[in-house]
Amino acid sequence: MGSISATMFTTLDGVVQGFGRPDEDTRGGFTHGGWGGRYHDEVLAAEMGKGMARSGDMLFGRRTWQDFAVVWGSATDGNPFSAHMNAARKYVVSTSLADVDAWQNSVLLRDLGSVAALDGELSIVGSASLVRSLHAAGLVDRLTLVIHPLTLGSGARLFEGPAPLTEFSLTGSVVTTLGVIVAHYTRVSPGAR
């Protein structure tokens, strides 16, 4: 078993839906899409760049993979995030996708057991439903919360239902010039797998 690191962009009230664009995720009538854009600065870019600089494969849920495949999969803009994501092996956890041929280097997994059998370092950006499921199964080793200084009052939250009692240790944090807190946590309980 490898290790899994998840990075989640969230508001102060825990909303993780529609971070990037107004049309990113409008499920449930969500109208606040694109809330994260105004908080981008050089400090945040550098912090996110550190994560992208680490070797390892990426892990996605179906919705995020489909969105990223369209947005990033054909990007030729010289953006280092595009280059990283296009080159990385991308594992996609889905029971409904027929294939993952739409984005190079993608591999389809049907269940969490398949995720647990993977070796190496795996990173997740977004994919809240998958992160919830992996957390419930005790499979999230590191969690980075990118906490934005606003509340939305509606939208999907990181932990919407019961989450298992789990303790994390704060291993580092950075505050950006626009008040975003990037908090890095490592799971300390329940015990090692």
UniProtKB/TrEMBL annotation:
<dbReference type="InterPro" id="IPR002734">
    <property type="entry name" value="RibDG_C"/>
</dbReference>
<protein>
    <submittedName>
        <fullName>Dihydrofolate reductase family protein</fullName>
    </submittedName>
</protein>
<feature type="domain" description="Bacterial bifunctional deaminase-reductase C-terminal">
    <location>
        <begin position="4"/>
        <end position="180"/>
    </location>
</feature>
<dbReference type="InterPro" id="IPR024072">
    <property type="entry name" value="DHFR-like_dom_sf"/>
</dbReference>
<dbReference type="Pfam" id="PF01872">
    <property type="entry name" value="RibD_C"/>
</dbReference>
